[in-house]
Write a structure and sequence with these properties.
With about 350 residues, the chain is mainly alpha-helical. Helices cover about 65% and strands about 5% of the residues. The chain has one domain (about 5-300, about 320-340). The chain has a two-stranded antiparallel sheet with strand order 1-2. A two-stranded antiparallel sheet has the order 3-4. Strand 1 and strand 2 form a beta hairpin. The two termini are about 30 Å apart.
Length: about 350
Amino acid sequence: MAARRGGVLGITLGLAAGLAFGIGGVFVKPLLESGWTPGAAVLARISIAAVLLAIPGVVALRGDFGRLWRAKWTILLYGLVAVAGVQFFFYASLQRIPVSMTLLIEYLAPIALVLFAWARTRRVPQPVVIGGSVLALAGLVLVIGPGGGDLDVLGIAFAALAMIGVCVYYAIGESAAAQLPPVSLIAAGFVVGAIALALAGLTGLLPMHVALGEVAFLGSDVPWFVPLIAVGLVSTAFAYTAGIASIRLLGARLSSFLGLSEVVFAAIAGWILLGEVLGPLQILGGVLILAGIVCVKLERPRAATAEVPGGVPEASEPAFPAPLGAEPVPITASIPLVADPAPEPPLPDPSRAA
């Protein structure tokens, strides 16, 4: 019964994170239209979230600040790869290939996790997982669109690196439980990610420009910091916290497929709040994504041990390696920060992680 309640809570948190990430585009779009560069918007939202989570992160440590040092490699990996790396490579990809193609590659993270676990454990995924992956991929193509224009090899490589960063987000979220409380990991990771993005801006690798004036937001003119605080609070601080909590309850695989709900929520938010009409194919794509999530949820748990020739039981291997400096933690099995896809509606908020 407790496991069932944990599963329901995990799914609820995963969908809440997907919704929070998905509406991030609605919050950030007014800033981008007023002259903010995507890099500046991402740096600001991460910095705001780091400030908001600083006190909860410190309280969660219960005075044991040495845990931060002992988990330093995990924090660096999370902040540099799962936060800053995803953002940097997402926007580097956008400069070379269509945004829809960048999003499509980045959101292949759940399928990449399935393939990685297959290669690591040498166990063929259950048919229901394979079927769910196919349905989710088809749904992504329909919702995001196959894209058009010229494709650049380097742009595709950048998008693939962003996708790997999303995979790292889910893997660390599942395996770092023994090292740090979730809110402490996220807060520290945001600090590292903000510093890395600021350095990228100072060196000119990531363009930074802000416009400090009023912006059109949900039908009225508001100061520039209103949508910025909203995206920092809802679509960054809350979204990451709910997402990590979901990963630890459900595992990386199911959480990553739940993360695809961000695409669906982004399209719905664009329809309701921005008047961006959903076409029949997008609606069908959303249904396919949800069907894929259900299929993965129906995966039957494997036995804890498996018989091998000679009758010696062989313990199941973790699906993902433990982060650097961490004790190996078994894995039972979720983009992100994925960045806000700026001016091409209806697109999700690719800052997760997400």
